[in-house]
Amino acid sequence: MNEMALWYTGLVIGAIFFVLGIIAFFRDRKNKDTAFVKMSLFEIVAAFSLIFPAELVAGERFSLLGVIRSVAVTLLMILKIFSGDGSETFIIDGHPFLSDIYVTMLALVNLSVMISIVGFVLQFLDVVFENMMFGKRKFEEVFLFTEMNEKTLSIAKSIRADKKYEGKQYGIVFLDVEATDKNKEKARELKAHFTNGEFHEELAALWKKTKKLDLYIFECSEDENLAKLNDFTKIELPENMAFTRVFVELTDTPWSIYGNFAKVNDLPSDKVIVNLVHSSENFILNDLYDHSVFDGARIAEKSECERFADAKKGLGPAELRIVDVLIVGLNQKSTEMVRALLPLCQMPGFVLKITLISIRNGRAVLHRAIPELQDEICEFGESIYSIDFIQAKGYDTDELELLVSEHCPKFTFAFVATDKNVLNVNIGLRLNTLRTRLNNDSDYKIQICNDRTDLITNWMPALKANIELVGGFDTIYNYKFITMSKIYNVCEKLHNSRQEGKRKEAEAKGETYKVQAWADYCNDEYKRHSVYARSLALKYKAEVLERYGLGWDTLWNDETWVTYEHMRWNMYTRTLGYIYSGKTNVDEAALSQDGKMIAKVHACLIPFEDLPEKNKKQDRINLDEDIVKVLREET
Torsion-angle region of residue 186: left (phi > 0), alpha (psi -120 to 50) or beta? Predict the structure, then answer.
C-alpha cells in the first residue's frame, strides 16, 4: 500500500508540474529566453517526480543512504530520458493501466524538455548569429539609443513601421547594460541589436558602418540625458565620421539657454546637429500641423466684428472668422497649445479667441511664461487675440457645463488636457454632448489627451466624427514627432529658398552674399524653433491664400500679409518670454546678441509701422510652388 501511494504521489506531482511547465511557457512566450528556461525547470521537476518512485521502490532503498542514492540515480536517469530512452523500463506489477499512464506521461515530459532545450539553444544561437552578422553589415542609416526603455522602444517601433525605410539598409541599436529581459525581447521583435559596450567605442564602430547616424538620448531623467550629452562632446570625432543628428530630451530646462550647442562645444556643424527636444512642444506643433484649427472657424457675429475691427484691414469684403478655442485643464501640453496658437492665428481674416478653464490660476501660470501676455489686444500691426481665463472649482460637477454655456458655447476647437486620462475622456464626452445640444449646425473638433488612443475604435461613428484622442505615449514618442520630420523638411526647403533669394538680390547689386548652409543654421536652438513656428504658420497661410484666390507672391508684396507676418513673429517671440526692450532700463544697443537673448529683450516687439525699413524686409516671405508642394506632401 505504501509503494502504491508512492507511485500515485509521483504520478500526480509529475502531471501537475508538466501542466505548469506548459502554462509557464505560453504565459511568457513573448519573452522566449525566460519562457524556455521556466518550461525546462518545471519539466525537470515533473521528470524527477515520475522517475524517483520507480528507482526507490525497485531497489527497496528506504534508508537515508538509499534515498540519497536514489536521488542521484534519478538525476542520471533524467539525462537518459532527455535523450529519448528509458520510458519502457517503468512497469508496475499488477497495474498495466498505471504503467501505460506512466509511460505516456514520461514521453510527454521527455518531449517538452527536449522542445524547451532545443528552443533555448536555437534562441541563443540566433542572437549570436545576429550579432555576428551585424558586425559585418554596412548601413545607409543607423539609429542608436543610449538606453532601452519605454520611450526609446516606442521611437524604435515607429521607425520600423515607417514605410520610408522599406527596402533600405538601416540598423536599430540599443546601448544598455541593464535592460530587462522583457525589453530585450521587444528589441528583438524590432530586429534591433543591443550591446553593453562603452558609449564612445560603440559610436566609433558605428560611424565606420553607416553614412548617417541618429543618436537618441532619452534616458530616465534630464540629468542623465545632459550627462550623456556632455560625454558625447568629449569624444574625439574621427575625420571620416558619419553625419550625426543628436536628439536629447529636456523635461525642465528651457532649450533656449543652450543657443548653438554644437558651436559652443566645437562640434563641426557640417557633421553634427544637436536637437534639444521638449516632447510636449513637439507634440503640439505636429498636432497643429496635422489638424487645422482654421477649418471649423465660425463667421464672426456683429458684436465680434466691431470688437475686432482692426482684423478686417486690407481684407475687403472677406468675412471675418473666429477661431473659437476652448481649453480645459492646465498642464504642460495645454500650456504649449496656448503658446503655439497665439502666433499661429495671427492670420488675415481670422481672430483667435481662447477660453481657458482650469482649477489653477491660469492667468498667473501663463504670465510667468509670457510676461507681456494681455487678456485681449486688437492692434493691427502688433497682434490680435483674446483670452478669457476662468478658474473652476472642479471638473466633476455640472459647473463645467455652466461655464462653457456662458463663456464659450460656440467653440470650434476644444483641447482637454488635465493630468488624468479617464477624467479627460469624461470631460470630452460631456463637452461633445453640450456642444451638440447648443449648436448642432456648426463644425467643431474636440481633442482629448489620452495615452490610450485606441479607445475610440469601437465608439459610435457619429461620436468619433467630432472627437480625437491625441497625446498618447506612442504618439509623442514617435520618430516623426521627435525629429519633427514633417515640419523639418519644409523648414529646410524654405531656408534654402530664402538664402537663394538673398544671394540673387546681392548679385543684382553687385555684392557678394555668403549662403548659410541649413545644417549650420538649424544647429542654433533659437533659429530652428523659430523656423518651426514660421513653417507651421506658412502651411495654413498657403491654404488661406488659395481660399482668397491670391498668388504666392502676396506674402512678399501685399502689405497686409507682410504686416501679419510681423504680428506672428511678435506673438511668437513673446511666447518665449521676451519683452519690448523699451519697457526696461536695459540699453539694448550695449548688449551683444547673446546678451539680448539672456535678458529676453527685443527692440522689434512693436507695431509693424514703427519698424525701421530694414526690419520690415525681414517679414516678407518668398513662397513658391515648390515650397507649397512640400507643404502638401508632408500633410
Answer: alpha
